[in-house]
Amino acid sequence: MHDLNPCGAAARRGRIDALGDLTVFDLSPFARGQGFGRSGYVERGFTSGADFYRHLVADAGFDRGEHILDLGCGFGRWSIFLAEVNRTVTGIDPMGGRLAIARNLAAHLDLDNTTFAAGSGNELPFADDDFDAAWCYSTLHFLDRRRALAELRRVLVPGGRLFVALYFAVGRMVALLCDSYTSGGWDDPDVALAITALEAGTTADGPPNMATAAGLDATMAGHGFAVERRFDIDSGGKAASLTEEERAIFADLPALVARFRADSAFRDRLLADYPRLCRGLDYNLSFLARAI
Ligand SMILES: C[S@@+](CC[C@H](N)C(=O)[O-])C[C@H]1O[C@@H](n2cnc3c(N)ncnc32)[C@H](O)[C@@H]1O
């Protein structure tokens, strides 16, 4: 640990900076003609800008020259900023197209301390105690939480750190249901995803899963992690305060789904007002935890 050659870090930073303004950076040359899929996630690329990535990596304490796992790395947007200030970064994701972009980007940046491999967080292809810390951005809700957290504990050194961000909470799942229904109707796969999560509630560990802010510490403790710090990242914008009647709509999530399916007047009202309503609910949870 802490053996990062600062010259190496500066050189790597210079290579990323040479990409220019990341808020308008076009990833398509790195996809080498492959489509980006339908979510818009890859097209959005690095629109938050380099400072956003660097600041969060440092603020979370992931700038210490360590051996890092980036679980659900996607096209590697966090991996390259983690690689800038760490000894090694290993990105894991099941989607080959995204891994190809990550590899091409890392090769272009000469980041020879990165490795990208196909795999699932539910069954990690690594030895016990392999990593100092793990980064898991906008991915934990897609996993089998029980298996993934057991795997993360196994591959982390004793006391290893886990950073989890944009972990979906109830508001985000309701927004996903409404957004995807609006764009794709009942056939949209994200409608099914959101419904599965909402019907299962916040204690279910199967994919997809979610938590509430109030239940997070107990949920993570139940899986062998102590939450040490919370972060407020993209929590859904300025909070809205909901009336008691509005809160009651979200008190019974299976009932909410049943009404969304069967009652078109209720559905239309929710679709018209969900951006405000979701701002009154837990939205994205982000936190740093330690394996216990
Ligand atoms: C919203 S993207 C976030 C990607 C990346 N962490 C980022 O912030 O750019 C979620 C990622 O989770 C990956 N994913 C889905 N199921 C997974 C699984 N079982 N194991 C690991 N990653 C998974 C997806 O392929 C996708 O790339």
Structure overview:
Helix 1 packs antiparallel against helix 5, helix 4 (50-59) crosses helix 5 (77-84) and helix 9 packs antiparallel against helix 12 (253-262). The chain is globular. The protein starts with 5 loop residues before the first helix and ends with a strand. It contains 13 helices and 7 strands. The chain is α/β, with parallel strands linked by helices. It has helices spanning 6-17, 28-31, 41-44, 50-59, 77-84, 96-108, 145-155, 170-184, 189-200, 216-221, 244-249, 253-262, 264-278, and strands spanning 67-71, 88-93, 114-118, 131-137, 156-168, 225-231, 284-291. The mean pLDDT is 93. The chain has a 7-stranded mixed β-sheet with strand order 3-2-1-4-5-7-6. The chain binds S-adenosylmethionine (SAM). The site of S-adenosylmethionine has 20 residues, from helix 5 and strand 2.
